[in-house]
Each structure stands twice: as structure tokens, then as C-alpha cells.
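Final report, closing paragraph on structural work. Over the funding period we assembled a curated collection of sequence-structure pairs, and we close with a single example.
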Amino acid sequence: MELKRYGDIQPFAFADIELRELTPEAFTAASFAEVVLPIGVERPSRENAKDHRMYICFQGEIEFVVDDETFRLGVGDVVHIDKGETYGFHNGGYQEGRLLLIRVPGPQADGAQP
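Its predicted structure, as stored:
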């Protein structure tokens, strides 16, 4: 058993966004991280190297582009991005955005960046 308390996890900067890695150290099959997106931040498009990448929105509205399809992710919405798909996102809203990011496999398993 491994317990991670949210308040004990230090966030870290990744470009213009903030990440808080929530994954227990013993769990390498997937990873879970909170992504904090300030107003105006943009994540340029890139190819997904993970087998699966999912974003769940729990604050704000975030504009995503996945393989040239543009849509807004609102509170409670989930987007799944397959390996090889190109994706990017932008917080053009009026409040900070917060997403839960689920990656399969997790960074501990393949050494890749978020």
C-alpha cells in the first residue's frame, strides 16, 4: 500500500503549465497528474508518444486540437488521444484551467516527459 497526499506533492513547471504528479511510485502501468493551465497558455501541437493519453477537465474550458479537429473541453468532459495522433491545447477562457491527465504507460515505465 502506498498513500500519496495531495498537499504533500510539490507541483513543478513544465513550459508554461504546472504539473502535479499524483501517481504512486510503485504504480508504473499508467500515471495520473493534475495540469494547471493559466489563462492564455498554449501547448503547441505535437505527436502523442503514449499508447493512451486522456484529459479530464475539472475547471475552465480548454480548446483542444486533435488531428486538425478543434473542440472545447468543459467541466466533466474527457478526451482520449491515441498513440500517433497530433494534439495541442489552449486556455483562451476567463479562468485558470485544470485537467487530470492520465498517461499509459506512465513516465516511470518509459522515461518519457509529460
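The first strand starts at residue 12 and ends at 14. The helical segments are 107-110. We thank the funder for supporting this effort.
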